[in-house]
Write a structure and sequence with these properties.
By secondary structure, the protein is α/β, with parallel strands linked by helices. The chain has two domains: 232 residues, TIM Barrel, CATH 3.20.20; 99 residues, no CATH class. 34% of the residues lie in helices and 15% in strands. The chain has an eight-stranded parallel beta barrel, surrounded by five helices. The chain has a three-stranded mixed β-sheet with strand order 5-6-7, with no helix packed on it. Strands 2-3 form a two-stranded antiparallel sheet. The protein is globular and about 60 Å long.
């Protein structure tokens, strides 16, 4: 089904295909610093038998909120929209001389000394903040000229201009880093839903995704860069990811957090949506609430509504939920045939890997074995 309400973006000439994508780089949650040591369990897997293998092929640097300046980087019904200064600050955190990307390259270099050079460079995807029409999206009377450079975001072409500036700036900064083990695969749209003109959503006319995303995709493709997206479960726009110009898109099951409500996001619906929309793959999800070492001493974890309801007694069930993700991925016939994206909150993967509790480390080992085992030459293009 073609999306006639938007002009489809031209296809890419050649962009990288991501086999497994690790979501990292969050700065609005503790700990904020992504150093080489923190990246190490994401870069390679030290198996129980003492062997070590390269782990993720690709890393997505993603952020939705700048808590230093109190600005939102994605369209939200509340909050103050980030301007150019906050966009630059995010680029500094990720692509500064000692930023997160440089630290990831350092972690890869350390792994290469132990296990030899990887077969190919690890790929980096940089999240693009939303160019939000209003300074306060929830207040349609607020300024549209807040971003900077004299750009009026009431004009779609000015928002596209901001995206192009960000892409160019990120590419230049990445090149300046001179990373030995990393290559820039492309960019990522931060909004997890894409309301289009056919939607009931009254805000779609202020978002203009039907014009913006094809333009951004085309600009990326002109530079041999990909454009990627991970919508929330059955989010508006997911059916049209190809028409919009995305190169790969993964579906979030959003199932992990509904421990006491299994029917809220049944896996059968997620699998059906991925198959019918021919999506690239599925996201696996976990947070610190499934790390036994983190949930000791009365710490609580959030459900899907953000209510702190999980306790240490829920850890075994939450760990089993991650195992269920892996099993559903296999049962759907995705294993080795579709791509994996991993959301592990702000630090859960590293916490599992470095935990003194055997059950935590065992879950980390299972997940790593699953990711490495799913790689297949069948995943060559989407």
């Amino acid at each position: 089904m073609l999306l006639t309400a938007c002009a489809s973006a031209p296809g890419p000439t050649q962009v990288p295909v991501l086999r497994d994508l690790d979501l990292v780089g969050y700065w609005h949650r503790e700990p904020r610093v992504w150093d080489a040591e923190r990246f190490a369990p994401h870069v390679s897997w030290k198996a129980p038998d003492g062997s070590e293998q390269w782990l993720f092929d690709a890393f997505l640097f993603l952020e939705g909120y700048d808590n230093v300046h109190g600005k939102t980087l994605t369209i939200s019904p509340s909050g103050i929209s980030a301007g150019k200064a906050e966009w630059e600050y995010q680029l500094d955190l990720w692509l500064g001389p000692q930023g997160s990307v440089a630290q990831l390259d350092k972690a890869c270099a350390a792994a290469a000394e132990r296990i030899g050079e990887p077969g190919s460079k690890r790929m980096v995807v940089i999240g693009i903040p939303d160019a939000i029409m209003f300074e306060e999206f929830g207040n349609k009377q607020s300024s549209t000229v807040y971003w900077g450079d004299g750009l009026d975001f009431a004009l779609v072409e000015n928002r596209i201009k901001a995206y192009k500036w960000y892409i160019d700036e990120a590419r230049n900064r990445f090149k300046a880093l001179g990373c030995k083990y990393l290559s820039l695969a492309g960019f990522y749209i931060t909004s997890e839903d894409i309301h289009l003109p056919y939607d009931v959503d009254v805000n779609s006319r202020y978002k203009n995704w039907e014009t913006i995303i094809p333009a951004v995709a085309s600009y990326c493709h002109d530079k041999a860069q990909g454009l990627y997206w991970i919508p929330y479960n059955l989010a508006p726009g997911y059916k049209f990811w190809k028409e919009l110009g995305f190169d790969q898109a993964w579906m979030q099951p959003n199932w992990y957090w509904n421990l006491h409500d299994n029917d809220r996001h049944p896996f059968s619906n997620t699998v059906k949506a991925i198959q019918e929309a021919d999506m690239s793959g599925m996201e696996l999800e976990l947070e610190y609430s499934c790390v036994a070492a983190e949930m000791e001493d009365g710490k609580m974890g959030p459900d899907s509504a953000g209510k702190m309801i999980f306790s240490a007694s829920d850890v075994p069930a939450l760990q089993d939920r991650l195992r269920r993700y892996m099993q559903e991925f296999k049962d759907a016939g995705f294993y080795g045939r579709r791509s994996i994206a991993l959301y592990s909150g702000s630090n859960a993967l590293t916490q599992l890997a470095t935990s003194p509790i055997q059950a935590d480390r065992a879950l980390y080992d299972e997940l790593c074995e699953f990711i490495i085992g799913s790689r297949s030459t069948q995943i060559t293009e989407q």
